[in-house]
Automatic annotation (TrEMBL):
It is an enzyme of class 1 (oxidoreductase). Pfam families: FMN_dh. Gene3D superfamilies: Aldolase class I. Belongs to the FMN-dependent alpha-hydroxy acid dehydrogenase family. This is Alpha-hydroxy acid oxidase. Residues 1-355 form the FMN hydroxy acid dehydrogenase domain. PANTHER family: 2-HYDROXYACID OXIDASE 1 (PTHR10578:SF107), S -2-HYDROXY-ACID OXIDASE-RELATED (PTHR10578). One of its GO terms (molecular function) is oxidoreductase activity. SUPFAM superfamilies: FMN-linked oxidoreductases (SSF51395). Its cofactor is FMN.
Length: 360
C-alpha cells in the first residue's frame, strides 16, 4: 500500500498531495492513528483445520464481499479525470459499498451508473430545503444508507492547505451544491484555504440531536452517524435510531489531539452493546489493520486515503489493486489467526489501548 502512496505522490502536484494527505494542526492525531493501530496485537488460534476463511460481511443493510466500505471523500476528480465514477466502478467489482460525499466532484446519478452499492454522506447545509433535496436524490439514485457526518461544525485549520493557499481548479465543482454555493472554493481566500472558507459558508455548524431526529422523519434509508469518539454520543445516536455509528476522527483532519479512532473503538462497542453496528475509520492501511479493528469489536471499517492513492496511480485499475491487496491480506490474516470468518475475530485475545468516558 505504501508503494501505491509513493506512486500517487509522484503523479500529483504537491498542493493536491498535501490536500489529501495532510491533517489538522500539528498533525499529531494523524500520526497517532497509525501509532495506535500498530500497538494493537491479537492472538492466534491453532489446529483449527481451516483451509479457507470467508471475508463476507453485512454492513448496515448492505451485503459486502469484505468488511469495508469506501469512506466518503471530496473532489475525487482532483486525482483522476473520471473521479468518483472510476473509484465506484472498482468498488462494484470488489463488492464493497461506496460512500458518495456531499461535496463529490460528480453527481450521485452519474456515480450510480458504475453499479456499486452506494451510501450517501450528508453534510448539514444551512438550507434545510437543500438537505431534503439531497436526501431525496440519494433515495432516487438507489442509495442503501444515509451517512451523516457530525464532526465538522467547521473545518479545522489544516496548515498544509493554509500555507499552499489551496484552491480548486475551475473545472472541479461540488456537484451536489447549488450553483451559488459551488464557486467559493475556486476563489483565493484572503487568509489561507479557499476550501475551508467555502465549507464554512455552506455548512451549518448548529447541527444538533434535534436535527438528527428530524432527519430520521425525512427518509426511509437507514441512518449512519459518522464522527463519534465518545461512548455517550454513540449510545445517544443508537437511541435516536441510527443503525450504525462510525468511530472516526476524520482521518486526523478535525480537532488535533483527539483520541485515535482505534483507541476510542472499544469504549464505543461496549457502550452501544449491540444496539447498532459500529464501524471505524482513520488510519486503515492493510488487511491486518482490518483484523485489528474487528478484534476490538468493529463490524467493519471505512478505507479512505489508500483509495485516493489507487485512483491517482491508475484510475479504476489502481483502486482495484487497493481492494485486491486488502482482500488478499485479510484472507491471509484470518487464516493465520485461525478464524473461519470475520465474525470469529472478536473471540481472539488482544492487547492495545482503549478509552471509555465517565458516566454522564
Amino acid at each position: 500500500m505504501d508503494d501505491l502512496g509513493a506512486l500517487a505522490a509522484e503523479v500529483l502536484s504537491a498542493e493536491v498531495w498535501d490536500f489529501i494527505s495532510g491533517g489538522s494542526g500539528s498533525e499529531r492525531t494523524l500520526d497517532a492513528n497509525r501509532t495506535a493501530l500498530d500497538r494493537v496485537a491479537v492472538s492466534t488460534r491453532v489446529l483449527t483445520g481451516i483451509q479457507q476463511s470467508s471475508t463476507a460481511a453485512k454492513l448496515v443493510r448492505t451485503a459486502a464481499a469484505l468488511p469495508l466500505a469506501v469512506a466518503p471523500m471530496a473532489y475525487q476528480r482532483l486525482l483522476h479525470p473520471e473521479g468518483e465514477v472510476a473509484a465506484a466502478r472498482a468498488a462494484a467489482a470488489a463488492g464493497v459499498p461506496f460512500a458518495v460525499s456531499t461535496i463529490s466532484s460528480l453527481p450521485i446519478e452519474e456515480i450510480a451508473e458504475a453499479g456499486a452499492a452506494l451510501w450517501f454522506q450528508l453534510y448539514w447545509l444551512r438550507d434545510r430545503g437543500r438537505v431534503v433535496d439531497l436526501v431525496q436524490r440519494a433515495e432516487q439514485a438507489g442509495c442503501e444508507a444515509l451517512m451523516v457526518t457530525v464532526d465538522v461544525p467547521v473545518m479545522a485549520r489544516r496548515l498544509r492547505d493554509l500555507r499552499n493557499e489551496f484552491t480548486l481548479p475551475a473545472w472541479i465543482d461540488a456537484a451536489h451544491l447549488e450553483s451559488d454555493d459551488r464557486t467559493g472554493a475556486h476563489v483565493t481566500a484572503e487568509h489561507g484555504s479557499a476550501v475551508a472558507e467555502h465549507t464554512r459558508s455552506a455548512f451549518d455548524p448548529t447541527l444538533s440531536w434535534a436535527d438528527l431526529d428530524w432527519l430520521r422523519e425525512q427518509t426511509r434509508l437507514p441512518v449512519v452517524v459518522k464522527g463519534v469518539l465518545d461512548p455517550r454520543d454513540a449510545v445517544r445516536a443508537a437511541r435516536a435510531g441510527a443503525e450504525a455509528v462510525v468511530v472516526s476522527n476524520h482521518g486526523g483532519r478535525q480537532l488535533d489531539g483527539v483520541l485515535p479512532s482505534i483507541t476510542a473503538l472499544t469504549g464505543v462497542v461496549e457502550a452501544v452493546d449491540g444496539q447498532c453496528q459500529v464501524l471505524m475509520d482513520s488510519g486503515i492501511r492493510s488487511g491486518v489493520d482490518i483484523l485489528r479493528a474487528l478484534a476490538l469489536g468493529a463490524d467493519g471499517v471505512l478505507v479512505g486515503r489508500p483509495v485516493l492513492w489507487g485512483l491517482a496511480a491508475g484510475g479504476t485499475d489502481g483502486v482495484g489493486q487497493v481492494f485486491a491487496l486488502l482482500r488478499s491480506e485479510l484472507e491471509e490474516a484470518l487464516l493465520l489467526a485461525g478464524c473461519p470468518d470475520v465474525t470469529a475475530v472478536r473471540a481472539l485475545l488482544r492487547t492495545g489501548v482503549s478509552a471509555t468516558a465517565a458516566d454522564g
